[in-house]
Write a structure and sequence with these properties.
Helix content is 19%, strand content 17%. By secondary structure, the chain is of the alpha+beta class. It has a single domain, classed as Endonuclease/exonuclease/phosphatase (Deoxyribonuclease I, Chain A), CATH 3.60.10.10. Strand 8, helix 5 and strand 9 form a beta-alpha-beta unit. It is globular, with a radius of gyration of 21 Å.
Length: 448
Amino acid sequence: MLRYTLHKMAKKDSLSRLYTATSHQEVSPPPLKRRRLTQTPSLALDKPRASSTLQTADQPRSSSPSKDAFRVFSWNINGINAFLSSTHSARKITSYFTESTKTQKSGTSSIDAPPNANRLRTPPGQALSSSTHSLRAFLARHNWPEILFLQELKIKPQDGPARLPKILSALNTPLNAADSVSDHRTYTFNAVLPRDKHNAKAFGGKLYGVGTIMRTDFARKWVATVREVDWDIEGRVSVVEMRGAPEGQDENEPVTKPLALINVYAVNGTTQPYRNPLTGAVHPNCPTRHDRKLVFHSLLRDECLSLEARGFSVAVAGDMNIARGPADGHPNLRTFPEQHCVNRVDFNTKFFGEEDNKRAGAYVGTQDEKTEKCLDAVDVFRAKYGMEKRYTYYPNRGEWGSSCDRVDMVFVSKEVWGDGRVIDTGILDTPQERSPSDHVPFWVKIAL
């Protein structure tokens, strides 16, 4: 039976850190298991688009589910309140489940259910709900993805305990009578909220914050723990450490490392002061948000390298607040003030090697810059679709597509790409998918 728990993990002087609703216990990452990696042909699920123009007429498609892979969607929603209607009151979490779900045998997974089991007769997420902005309708429309990363929750830390039940209700309340509820159609929610009283105080603290939504059956089977990091207190990072392959794999089969998935809302570089989180004074070694952005890059890279050293492969997804190169900005790339160029070089240097930067048209470094530690990751969209011009940030002001950037992305450990585990990726770049936000969602499908 699904357990509904609310944790408040914080230091004495903190208001909020990590709020979770989980269906599994947190355990240490397991040793590697041996398993066969199923190779799935790569499919161009999004229609090809001419690189010289912005196409908006066709509806980009997302990936279909499969039992030997999982999908991560990521979306900067620019505030979760628009998705919480007045009807989403706090309900007991067990009320979301049918009797058959509650009594499901341990060890079974609805991901193995027959393809047509419990399918809605109505097109998912369309005629199901009259709500304009619905998280559950979004999940239904995209075939109930295993994971959805959210950025910019914009929840005041002190409001966390009251907001969590409403978010769970929005995720798990059936859209109508045809919407059956089961482990493969219900979700857990984990939030990391800001607790920096000096650097996250604008709008009464109603800013930043990341949320990790996981499908119940997937979380129970594959997720070892969801955690924050100790080097960020602005609510910008959440880490999902996955388990290795299930027991019973042939010892002679090749080893596939477990994955660590990192949900990121990166610092936006500005000239605003960055303050010492303890004293509130302008930080002497990091006086601006531009400076803090460079430090954030280093800390995130080091977190990734640490996870790799522990035996994980890494996938980082979210809003990086950086456009890597000319193909990532329309009508052009932001180059003024010059610090934006410095930030871009720093990001490309710390996360990507020469091969990936050349492929993305992103960076030509100096010898000094090449001495930086590098994750040597692969930008999945650029690796798969080359210099195709697709964007994720579409401001609400002005005409759709008149000014846009690809600042949201997913990048993975080089071995994940090299082993063929990345099946496909896509950007859902339409006004309809943008919904009330100023970013559109994107997704990646990875073999288990």
